[in-house]
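User: Here's a protein and a ligand (nickel (II) ion). What would the complex look like?
Assistant: Let me lay out the input and then the predicted complex.
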Amino acid sequence: MVAIFDSHAHYNDERFDCDRDVLLNKMNKNGVCGIINVGVDIKTSFECIELTEKYPFIWAAVGIYPHNSIYTEDDYLESLKKMLEHKKVVAIGEIGLDYHYDESPRELQKKFFEEQLALATQYDIPVIIHSREAFSDTLSLLSKYRPKGVVHCFSGSQEIMNEVIKLNMYIGLGGSVTFKNAKHPLMVAKSVPLKNLLLETDCPYMAPVPFRGKRCDSSMISYTANKIAELKGMDINELLSITSENVYNLFSKIKN
Ligand code: NI
């Protein structure tokens, strides 16, 4: 099978504390050629950078997740700017809006999202977007700043997918396409143009069937890819090689 690139993972998560190095040392053998490890606040963004320094096949995204804006210091942009100078920091993320849980006030989420979108435009670096039950506000801010990037773990309808594609952005799909109750992800997987598709795990979360509910890792992308290839009526190796190529196109700081 062609090598897998996982465009969204969280290996700094405590669920990997017991065997992180053992697991990551096996990645290449398990067919994984690259991973973007994604931060959710300043502390985890630093942890992502540490992982990139330890593993040649890991790159980092740094940023403040919508719910974490509530405890983030006012001078966070200065910290992010310093991190962006690192050669293996390839994106700002994950950033966005989440109206499913109101752990941070929506106005504060929007403020952090806008500031980080502006930063991405200033540094000409892609963004990794988290958007949950907030597509209308997310799309209007993306239209305003027009960053390069991906809407990760995409949960929207086909209509919203079309809006994202019109902005020349990518759709990130993961384990949810294998879930029995997945209506939107299935339709999106079927209809998303290959040139706009990225594969991801969001591990340790979102393990695909038959591992649903268990701890996920990047090697499980093959189950997600298998399902998408089946829906699209195409060969899984072709799908994996196109989506890996998409990663290199979007995250241009990664050297192929
Ligand atoms: Ni994530």
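Summary: The pocket of nickel (II) ion is lined by residues 8, 10, 38, 94, 202 (CB under 6 Å).
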